[in-house]
Amino acid sequence: MGTLYLVRHGQASFGSHDYDRLSELGHRQCRALGEHFRSMNLRFASVLTGTLRRHRETYEGIAEGLGQSPAPEVCAGLDEYNPEAIVRAVYSGELPKPDSPEAVRQHFRLLREGLVAWMQGQAVPAGMPSFADFSAGVAGALARAREQADEDVLIVSSGGPISVAVGQVLGLQPEAVVELNLRIRNSAVTEFVANPKRHSLLSFNGLPHLHRPELADWVTYA
């Protein structure tokens, strides 16, 4: 049996006008993860990523640290949901810029509420697929990875698709999937054991590449 490694992108640019790019710390996180994979003598038979810039930059950092860079298969089913559309589906008031602790807490309270409503079919965020279609995209990417179930495969994505993937494997309800989503750390690794028919969860939200005390301030969530 092979292992499927699902990696959330490195720290992006939360609160800026362009979230979809890694911060300098995000680049360092990803290179460190690649170096960790190299220390494990990992060689990925294939790589799947979402279409977003932060996914591409994350994989580039991993590949640099790993010293191996197979051309990734780009899969739209691994793209993140639109958090602003999710929030707007349940809240019509003014959204303050998340530049204070209270504003950040409000953002995530609304995001949690909007995600549950979307997953339960009670909200239709503008410009987004239904949750059923979003979930089907994730399932399709997992099925693609299972085509090489005897090999190690890497997926680079975002917190939403990764938490949905875990929810599919474990049969979780929407509220539990949302809680997983909001706990996934930047560059964190989730592992599935694969066989041709299904995946099983091996680990969730690990940061083996950042366990050294001097890297404690490299652990981020947004």
Q: What features would you describe in this structure?
A:
The chain is α/β, with parallel strands linked by helices and 222 residues long. It is built from seven helices and six strands. Strands 3-2-4-1-5-6 form a six-stranded mixed β-sheet. β2, α2 and β3 form a beta-alpha-beta unit. α5 packs across α6. It is globular. The mean pLDDT is 94. This is Histidine phosphatase family protein. Its EC number is 3.1.3.-.
Gist of the model:
By secondary structure, this protein is an alpha/beta fold. 41% of the residues lie in helices and 14% in strands.
Low-confidence stretches: none
**CATH architecture verdict of the largest domain:** 3-Layer(aba) Sandwich
Judged by helices, strands and strand pairing, the structural class is alpha/beta
Main sheet record: 6 strands, mixed
The CATH top-level class label of the largest domain: Alpha Beta
| Gross geometry | globular
Could you give the count of β-strands?
6
Total helical elements = 7
Mean pLDDT: 94
Assess the beta-strand content as a share of residues.
5-15%
Side by side, the strands of the main sheet go: 3-2-4-1-5-6
Oligomer: single chain
Taking the alpha carbons of the first and last residues, their distance comes to 33 Å
CA radius of gyration is 17 Å
CATH superfamily of the largest domain: Phosphoglycerate mutase-like
What are the secondary-structure elements, in order, as H or E?
Answer: EHEHEHHHEHHEE
Pfam families: His_Phos_1 (PF00300)
EC number: 3.1.3.-
Organism: Ideonella lacteola
GO molecular function: hydrolase activity
